[in-house]
Every structure is written in structure tokens, then in C-alpha cells.
């Protein structure tokens, strides 16, 4: 037997094993689905459905892979690589979980401080090695004694570090856990999937399956993309779909949820308008008070309209959120536009001011809100203090008697939301300014030069060149600021006490969602609110996109 | 080259600081040994080698001093309880609400074995099966007696939702109270003296401390200046509830199955409180935190619980406390606040957890916590009360004891077994704030509030 024929025989054997392996994977998946639905495994309905979908996909894809390998098609290899790679990742995460690796990371965090000095010794070793530059050895082929010492110091320091943070105990504990049944299953899975991946990546196998360079590049591309893609699917798309399912249930995040259909959505959207015979007629006289609560009333002369809803808090939250957007977006975009034009000039100190205006954007919201809470305090806050000083100065100067308003910024229902708008605008303005600055620097200077030659003034240039050329940036800034404003939460939660404010004047959609889901054990209902909020944000963004397309100078 | 040298010098300085750190005294972070969770890599090893059961427990401390006391208690109990290793976890921070974090951990299955919850949450946790009914364990415990604790908290902690019965024979025990507390008025004696107002402590001693006298002192001190206030209270159900209770009203009907915010008595109490803010203008604006204003020396009477005492001890004016004034019902309408240590329903070690709950509520342990000044022991014991009186300042600690005395008929803080307390509070809080800030009339409030609030029952 020649060497080539031996290789061919090996390749054929690997391919036959691959076909059997794919078939086995498909069979095991099918059996798992059967066990799930034959009540052999107790789990909530949503888990059964999810696992069945995943299992069904594995059955179909693995069978397809076996068939394609049988046909010696490269797609069989591609499909097998993807399935084995996913299997390998699942077994790897399972092994880490069985070995309590993630809890160990927490423990490492707790103990890390103890090891820092010894990391310093490692750094010392590194710098010792750098000293070699000043004491070069004559024989370039020999390692200098400094370099040797450096290596040993670094190694010693690192070992001491591991010892100090109890890493050795952790590793022994981890390995011990892997010898338990669930650990052994994870390790076995790792070995099998790993071997399958290794065998499929052999050049002879690839050649036998007619793999071309382009196919390899596609696989490499997906491989590099996979960490991010898996993260997106597991931590973003997965929870998103789960929350969509929960929105049709009475989930409290603890017990098995019951299917409610559209009940949550119908409660949110159940509203009623009723005619009032007099402006002060009670809601209970015109609507079924066991179902509806009054949200508001519009009066005209001796009559009026009552607006009632099954969930008045949602509608109050929607009203407040839209009011917030209506004021906070212009207040954080228009000043930012003007500010960026000033900061775009070449006056001295502009870099300093750019940094200053950007600082609120990077500061922690909780800290900022606490500072503003103190500033807003009606009795000992600095804002009212300066207002009082100003009024006293004015009264003394002109001998008048202007009354100090003593504004109750956060405790008066007429000013509470406005107080939050001020904070949000102040905080967002700096970031928007930087975005506008970037946009301004992309406008060709020739346009301004030509306009100057044509006799245009500063205002004409701003109106005729800057604004139209900034349209894409403006669109981006307005869209992102609107989305951000629709999700206002932290400032309200920290600043207000209680967060809903007087007469629910500061309850917002995300705050209501949070209260329902995390404080009232209504995860299902909170999920429904989240999806309604998504639809509102999506609708607003869509409108902005359409307006942008119609008005864009780039499009036309 | 210069830049390179600079980088190296800086690097050497960093190393020097590391070495000095390593050779120096232990880092401050190492001091409260028990606040550090033992490395998970170590914990199971301990469990396996010595067969000890590791229990995690949690409270909501207000400051570092409380964290230190609880840490020391954990260390001592760890030594006392055979076969149990304890890990204490202080909970709650500015950015992580204690209860929200706890609920999330329960949902994720990572909550501690034993934890503290406020009295209003007990029904929610119990009916959802999140906390263990430890009645059977207690029944087999020699010397355990439900009657050793205050009756108010034990009414709710022994409430059996299946039979709607309460007491030692109800078949339910959801936990044991960590402590109790009540409201008093913290007095700025300097302001009261400057205003020439009568001393509320003397009025209380003479039985003359009622709403009228309270208003008189408030108005006299308010007259001292536009930035001086006679009264201040925070914006939550506790402070406004006392005015409703004191006039004979309350949040709920007698068996706590329906809203009673619209009764004549409740509205009378609410109207009096509204008048403090709107008519007489003697109170700090409702919804603003009055504590910094009081600490700045600008409030004569600040209504708060015993938990505020450690913070108030740092002020630089003469201060003391007095009980709340008596209302039309003849009582001050005070609350008996409490919170309880409960056992996680998913704990793997219920017996050990029950042993820990008992150890955390002994007279000795409660005495150590009470010595901080933040709360009152939950055991009915003259010895404990006598010890509490020595935890000064304030000199008039008796005011707190008067607040929880049976003669004062305090209303025990409690959950809604027939409804949802968070839902009720969600409806009541903003509506009352509307009245106290002047945007809603008491009449309008009374006409509509129970239509809405009654929906919180049987949820």
C-alpha cells in the first residue's frame, strides 16, 4: 500500500465516521425532543418549545450534513463544522459552569487585592529585563544574566500572585468538580466535538469534500465573528424573544408562567372616553370604576370628556415620557448645535472647553442625580439660594417688591418633570456637541470660501451651508437623543422621592416597567409594557427616517 | 529616549509602591474580615473537609458602623454555632435597592439562605413561596415561644394565608423580627428656646402634648425666619400615616381587606397634615428630604424613626426627642415598624438556617445591634428595654418606648394578606402627595381614592 492510498483510506474512514456521527447527533436530538414531550422532563412550556425548536434544527441540519458528506459536498463539511463548533462551545461553557468557574472569578475578584503586590514583582522582573539595553552583552547569541534574572523574577512573582489569590486551590477544586458525573459528561463532549472538529479541519478531508479557498475564507470569517455573534444571540436576541413570550403570560420570574394570550396588551390599551355632564362629575358616574381609572379630563364650559383607562399608570407614564421627549430633545440638541459652532472656532482654550462640556456625559448618572438633588433642594439648595439673592439684589436696586418664588423643584407637580428635563439636557448636550463638532469638521472649507466671495454673512453661511451639510449628523443626533429620552429612568429613580413624583407627575414608561417587573413581581406585564415602548420608539424613529429621506440634500 | 526613560522611572515608582504596600500594614479592605465573602474556590473545600454547612445571610445596614457590628455578630455566631460556617453579606446601596436586588437573586436562585425583609413584604414573599414556613422547625425547638416577641409583628409572621388564622397555633411562622422601631419628633431645642415656645417634652410629661400644642410650637419656631421651619417629615407612607391613625382613621378597614382612606377620620387626619403644609406653612416642602435641613439647624421638629438617631448624633446644636402629639382619637397614631429574618425557601439547610434565625434574634444579639442606637430590640423584655434607655443620646429615649407601649396603641406595620401592598402604596403615595402639595383637594381625594385603591385587594 502506497503512502497516498493509506492517506486516502484514512480520509475515507474519517468521512464514514463523520456520517455516522452526524446521524448519531440527529438521532440523539430526536430522542431528546421525544423525552421532553413525553413528560420525562419537567420544565415550563416555553422551555419545552425552545428546546424542541433547537433540537429540531439540530436533527434537520445534522441529517443534511450527513447526506452532503455522503455526496462529498463541501456544504456537508461546513454544516458539520458549525454544529460541532457550537457543540464544543456548549460543552466548554457547561464544563466551566460545572467547575463553578464563574463563581471562582467572583472569588478571584475578592482576593485580587492581596495579589497586587506580587504582580508588582512580576513588573519589576520586566523592568529588570529592560535594563539590558544599558548593559549590552558582547555575544549577541547568549542570553544576558539580567535577562535570565528578569525571567525568573517574573515567573516567581506570578507564582506568588497565584498563590496569594488562592488560584491553586481554585484550579484543584475546578478539576475535582470535573471528575464528577456532570463534569465527565462535559469533558467527554469537549473531547468528541474537539476530535470531530480536528478531523474535519484536516487538509485531506477538506480536499476529499471539494473545499475551495473561498469556502475556507467563509469559515474563517464566521469563526472570527462567532464570539460576538454568539454573545448577541445569547445575551440580546435570546432575552428579547423570551421577553416577547413573557409578555403573553403572567410570569413573575419565579413560578411557572401561565399563558394569558393578549390579556396584558389589552389591559394596557383598554381606554375609554366618556362625556361628562358637568366638569366635576365623578369618574364612577360615567365609567365602570371596577375596570377603569381616570387618567384625565378635558373640560369645555359646563361639559367635558373623561379619559379613563384600565391601567392609568401606563397612560400617565406615556404622557410624561412624551412630554419629556418633547422638551429634552430640543434642549439637548439646539444648544449643542450652537455650542459646537462656537467650539469649532480657532479661539484659544477651545480644547479645554470641549473637554469641560463633555464631562457630564461621562459622569455617573447616580452621582449626578444626587448632586442635582442637593442643588434642587427647595430650602437649602444652591439654585433657590441664588434666585433669592438675585431677587433681593433686584428689589434693592429698583426699590420694588418682587416675591421670591421659592420654587419647589422636585416636590411640585408643575416643576418636577421640568427639573428632570434640565438634568437630562445638561447631561446629553456635551455628547451631542462632540458629534456636531465632528460633523462640522467634515464640511469642506471651500463652500464657506465661495459663500464669502458671494458676499454671504455669518448667518447666511450657517443657514445655507452649515445646517444642510450637517443634516446627516443632525438626524443621527436627534434619533439617538429621542431614543435615549424615551428610555429615561435613572434620573427619575434617584432624584424623586417617591420616583413617581407628586400626583404621578414623573412616572415614565421605563420607571413603570421597572416597578412592575422588579418590585411588583409582574414580569409578564412589564414585558408587555417594554414591547409597547419598543413600538412607540420604533414608530418615532421611522417617522424621523422618512422625514430625513425627504429633506436630505444628499438624497436629492 | 527621554520619554522612554520617563516611562521606566514611572514604572519603577509603581513597583516601589507595590513593594511598600506588600511590606506595610494590612490593607484597610482586609480589616472587616467577615464582610469579605470567602473565596468560592475555598468555601466548598472547607465544606467538604470539615462537613460544616456554609450559610449566607444578609441584612440592610444603613452605614459602615452597622456593617461592622453585623460582621462581628456573624463572626461570634460562627464560633457559637456548631457545624455552621457563616458568611455575612451587607445588602443595598445607592444604586442597588435592597429589595429589588434580593428579588432578582431569588428569581435567579442565588439569594442567601437567611435574609432580612421589611414587614410590608412578608405576605408577598410568603404567598409566592419564596420564604420557608418554619413553623414545624419552631414547634420542635425547646424553649421557643412566639410570645417572647412583640405581638404586632408576630400577628403577621404567624398569619396562615390558607386558613386566615394567626397566632402560635396557626401552623405558620415566616420568620422572627430583627428589631422594632417607631417614630418620634427630633427636637432642635435651641430653636424652640429661641422662639420662646413651650418645651414639647414638658408638655408631653404633663399630658398636654396634642395637635394644638404641636401647631403652636411649629408656628412659633416658623416665625423665627423664612428659612426656619417648625416641622419636617419625609415623603413615604410612614409619616403621613400617623396623622390618619391619630384621628381614628387608617389605610385599611379593620380586617385589612379594603381601603379606608376615604373615611371621615382618615380625611380629618389628612386635612390636618395638609394644613401644616398649605395653610399654616410651617413644614418643609413635602417631597423634599427634611433631614439635611434639620441637620443644618433649620427645622424645630423632625419626624423620623429610631434609625435616624446615629446620624442626628453628629449635629452641633442641642437636641432631644419627644413622642408624637396625641390626635383626636387620644393616641399619637404611631407605627410599630419591624422587619424580619426569614429563611429562603430554596435553602439546602433549613434546620441550620432556623438555628441562625434564632441566634440572630436572641436578646444578646439584639442588644448589640440596639447599642448602635438605630433600633429597639424586638423581644418583649424589661431587661432589653432598660438597656435601651441607656443608649444615649437622646436623653429622652423613653419617648420611643412610649411610642410602642400598648397604651399608645401603635399600628403594626404589616403586609396585605388580602391584596398587594406595593400596588396599594403605588396608588396611595402619589395621590396623598398631590393633597399635601396642594394640587388636589381633600374632598377630591376622598371621592376617588378608594375606587382606585380597592383594586389592590385580591390581586
The number of distinct structural domains of chain B comes to: 2
Number of strands of chain B: 11
Q: Which structural class best describes the helix and strand composition of chain A?
A: mainly alpha
Straight-line N-to-C gap of chain A: 72 Å
Helix coverage percent of chain B: 40-55%
Instruction: Give Rg of chain A in angstroms.
Output: 33 Å
The level-1 CATH class of the largest domain in chain B? Alpha Beta
CATH-level-4 superfamily name of the largest domain in chain B: Periplasmic binding protein-like II
Total domains of chain A: 3
Which oligomerization state do the chains in this entry correspond to?
heterodimer
Question: What is the spatial order of strands in the main beta sheet of chain A?
Answer: 1-3-2
Strand content of chain B: 5-15%
Percent range of helical residues of chain A: over 70%
Structural write-up:
- The complex is a heterodimer of chains A (556) and B (459).
- Chain A has 556 residues and is mostly helical.
- Chain A has three domains: 162 residues, no CATH class; 39 residues, no CATH class; 239 residues, MetI-like (MetI-like fold), CATH 1.10.3720.10.
- In chain A, strands 1-3-2 form a three-stranded antiparallel β-sheet.
- In chain A, a hairpin with a 2-residue loop joins strand 2 and strand 3.
- About 7% of the residues of chain B have low confidence.
- Chain B starts with a helix and ends in a 6-residue tail after the last helix.
- With 459 residues, chain B is of the alpha/beta class.
- Chain B is built from 20 helices and eleven strands.
- Chain B has two domains: 184 residues, Periplasmic binding protein-like II (D-Maltodextrin-Binding Protein, domain 2, 3-Layer(aba) Sandwich), CATH 3.40.190.10; 188 residues, Periplasmic binding protein-like II (D-Maltodextrin-Binding Protein, domain 2), CATH 3.40.190.
Amino acid at each position: 500500500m502506497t503512502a497516498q492510498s493509506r492517506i486516502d483510506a484514512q480520509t475515507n474512514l474519517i468521512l464514514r465516521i463523520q456520517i455516522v456521527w452526524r446521524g448519531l447527533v440527529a438521532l440523539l436530538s430526536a430522542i431528546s425532543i421525544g423525552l421532553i414531550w413525553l413528560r420525562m422532563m419537567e420544565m415550563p412550556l416555553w422551555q419545552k418549545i425552545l428546546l424542541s425548536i433547537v433540537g429540531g434544527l439540530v436533527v434537520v441540519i445534522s441529517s443534511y450534513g450527513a447526506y452532503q458528506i455522503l455526496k462529498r459536498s463541501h456544504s456537508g463539511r461546513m454544516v458539520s463544522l458549525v454544529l460541532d463548533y457550537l457543540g464544543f462551545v456548549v460543552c466548554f461553557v457547561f464544563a466551566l459552569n460545572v467547575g463553578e468557574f464563574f463563581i471562582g472569578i467572583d472569588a478571584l475578584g475578592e482576593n485580587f487585592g492581596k495579589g497586587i503586590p506580587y504582580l508588582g514583582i512580576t513588573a519589576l522582573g520586566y523592568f529588570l529585563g529592560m535594563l539590558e539595553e544599558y548593559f549590552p552583552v558582547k555575544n549577541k547569541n547568549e542570553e544576558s544574566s539580567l535577562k535570565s534574572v528578569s525571567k525568573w523574577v517574573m515567573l516567581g512573582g506570578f507564582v506568588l500572585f497565584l498563590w496569594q489569590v488562592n488560584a491553586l486551590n481554585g484550579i484543584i477544586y475546578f478539576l475535582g468538580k470535573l471528575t464528577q458525573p456532570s463534569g465527565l459528561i462535559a469533558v467527554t463532549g469537549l473531547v468528541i466535538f474537539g476530535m470531530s472538529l480536528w478531523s474535519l479541519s484536516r487538509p485531506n478531508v477538506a480536499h476529499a469534500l471539494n473545499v475551495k479557498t473561498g469556502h475556507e475564507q467563509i469559515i474563517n470569517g464566521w469563526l472570527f465573528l462567532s464570539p460576538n455573534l454568539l454573545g448577541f444571540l445569547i445575551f440580546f436576541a435570546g432575552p428579547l424573544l423570551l421577553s416577547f413570550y413573557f409578555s403573553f403570560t403572567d410570569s413573575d420570574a419565579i413560578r411557572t408562567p401561565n399563558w394569558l394570550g393578549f390579556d396584558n396588551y389589552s389591559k394596557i390599551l383598554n381606554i375609554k372616553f366618556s362625556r361628562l355632564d358637568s366638569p366635576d362629575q365623578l369618574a364612577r358616574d360615567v365609567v365602570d370604576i371596577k375596570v377603569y381609572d381616570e387618567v384625565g379630563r378635558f373640560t369645555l364650559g359646563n361639559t367635558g370628556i373623561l379619559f379613563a383607562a384600565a391601567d392609568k399608570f401606563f397612560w400617565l407614564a406615556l404622557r410624561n415620557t412624551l412630554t419629556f421627549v418633547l422638551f429634552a430633545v430640543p434642549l439637548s440638541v439646539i444648544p449643542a448645535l450652537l455650542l459646537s459652532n462656537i467650539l469649532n472656532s480657532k479661539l484659544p482654550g477651545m480644547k479645554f472647553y470641549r473637554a469641560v462640556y463633555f464631562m457630564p456625559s461621562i459622569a455617573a448618572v447616580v452621582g449626578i442625580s444626587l448632586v442635582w438633588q442637593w442643588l434642587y433642594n427647595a430650602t437649602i439648595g444652591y439654585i433657590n439660594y441664588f434666585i433669592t439673592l438675585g431677587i433681593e439684589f433686584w428689589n434693592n436696586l429698583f426699590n420694588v417688591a418682587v416675591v421670591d418664588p421659592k420654587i419647589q423643584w422636585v416636590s411640585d407637580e408643575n416643576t418636577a418633570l421640568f427639573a428632570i428635563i434640565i438634568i437630562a439636557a445638561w447631561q446629553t448636550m456635551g455628547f451631542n456637541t462632540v458629534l456636531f463638532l465632528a460633523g462640522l469638521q467634515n464640511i469642506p472649507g471651500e463652500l464657506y470660501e465661495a459663500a464669502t466671495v458671494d458676499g454671504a454673512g455669518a448667518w447666511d453661511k450657517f443657514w445655507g451651508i452649515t445646517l444642510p451639510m450637517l443634516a446627516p449628523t443632525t438626524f443621527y443626533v436627534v434619533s439617538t437623543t429621542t431614543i435615549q429620552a424615551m428610555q429615561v429612568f435613572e434620573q427619575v429613580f434617584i432624584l424623586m422621592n417617591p420616583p413617581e413624583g407628586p400626583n404621578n407627575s414623573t412616572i415614565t414608561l421605563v420607571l413603570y416597567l421597572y416597578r412592575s417587573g422588579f418590585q411588583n413581581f409582574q414580569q409578564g406585564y412589564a414585558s408587555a409594557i417594554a414591547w409597547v415602548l419598543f413600538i412607540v420608539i420604533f414608530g418615532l424613529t421611522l417617522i424621523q427616517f422618512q422625514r430625513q429621506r425627504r429633506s436630505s440634500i444628499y438624497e436629492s | 529616549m527621554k520619554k522612554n526613560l520617563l516611562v521606566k522611572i514611572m514604572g519603577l515608582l509603581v513597583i516601589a509602591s507595590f513593594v511598600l504596600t506588600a511590606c506595610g500594614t494590612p490593607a484597610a479592605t482586609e480589616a472587616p474580615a467577615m464582610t469579605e465573602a470567602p473565596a468560592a474556590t475555598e468555601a466548598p473545600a472547607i465544606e467538604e473537609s470539615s462537613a460544616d454547612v456554609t450559610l449566607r445571610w444578609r441584612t440592610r445596614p444603613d452605614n459602615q458602623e452597622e456593617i461592622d457590628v453585623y460582621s462581628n455578630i456573624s463572626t461570634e455566631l460562627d464560633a457559637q454555632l456548631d457545624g455552621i460556617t457563616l458568611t455575612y453579606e451587607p445588602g443595598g446601596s445607592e444604586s442597588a435597592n435592597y429589595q429589588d436586588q434580593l428579588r432578582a437573586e431569588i428569581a435567579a436562585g442565588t439569594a442567601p439562605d437567611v435574609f432580612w425583609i421589611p414587614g410590608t413584604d412578608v405576605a408577598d414573599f410568603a404567598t409566592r413561596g419564596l420564604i420557608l414556613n418554619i413553623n414545624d422547625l419552631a414547634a420542635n425547638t425547646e424553649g421557643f415561644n412566639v410570645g417572647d416577641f412583640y405581638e404586632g409583628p408576630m400577628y403577621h409572621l404567624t398569619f396562615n394565608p390558607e386558613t386566615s388564622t394567626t397566632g402560635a397555633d396557626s401552623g405558620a411562622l415566616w420568620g422572627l423580627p430583627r428589631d422594632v422601631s417607631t417614630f418620634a419628633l427630633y427636637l432642635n431645642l435651641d430653636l424652640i428656646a429661641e422662639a420662646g415656645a413651650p418645651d414639647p417634652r414638658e408638655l408631653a410629661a404633663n399630658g398636654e402634648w396634642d395637635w394644638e400644642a404641636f401647631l403652636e410650637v411649629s408656628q412659633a419656631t416658623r416665625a423665627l425666619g423664612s428659612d426656619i421651619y417648625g416641622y419636617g417629615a419625609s415623603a413615604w407612607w410612614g409619616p403621613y400615616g400617623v396623622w390618619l391613625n391619630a384621628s381614628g382613621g387608617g389605610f385599611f378597614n379593620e380586617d385589612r381587606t379594603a381601603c379606608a382612606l376615604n373615611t371621615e377620620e382618615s380625611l380629618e387626619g389628612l386635612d390636618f397634615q395638609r394644613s401644616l403644609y398649605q395653610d399654616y406653612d410651617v413644614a418643609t416642602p413635602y417631597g423634599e428630604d427634611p433631614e439635611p435641613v434639620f441637620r443644618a439647624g433649620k427645622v424645630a421638629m423632625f419626624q423620623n424613626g429610631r434609625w435616624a438617631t446615629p446620624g442626628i448624633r453628629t449635629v452641633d446644636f442641642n437636641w432631644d426627642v419627644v413622642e408624637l402629639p396625641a390626635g383626636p382619637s387620644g393616641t399619637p397614631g404611631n407605627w410599630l415598624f419591624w422587619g424580619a429574618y426569614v429563611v429562603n425557601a430554596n435553602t439546602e439547610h433549613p434546620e441550620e438556617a432556623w438555628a441562625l434565625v434564632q441566634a440572630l434574634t436572641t436578646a444578646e444579639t439584639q442588644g448589640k445591634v440596639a447599642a448602635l442606637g438605630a433600633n429597639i430590640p424586638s423581644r418583649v423584655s424589661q431587661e432589653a428595654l432598660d438597656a435601651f434607655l441607656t443608649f444615649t443620646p437622646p436623653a429622652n429615649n423613653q419617648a420611643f418606648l412610649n411610642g410602642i407601649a400598648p397604651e399608645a396603641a401603635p399600628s403594626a406595620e404589616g403586609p396585605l394578606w388580602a391584596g398587594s401592598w406595593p400596588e396599594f402604596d403605588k396608588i396611595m403615595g402619589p395621590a396623598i402627595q398631590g393633597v399635601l402639595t396642594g394640587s388636589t383637594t381633600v374632598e377630591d381625594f376622598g371621592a376617588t381614592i378608594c375606587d382606585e385603591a380597592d383594586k389592590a385587594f385580591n390581586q
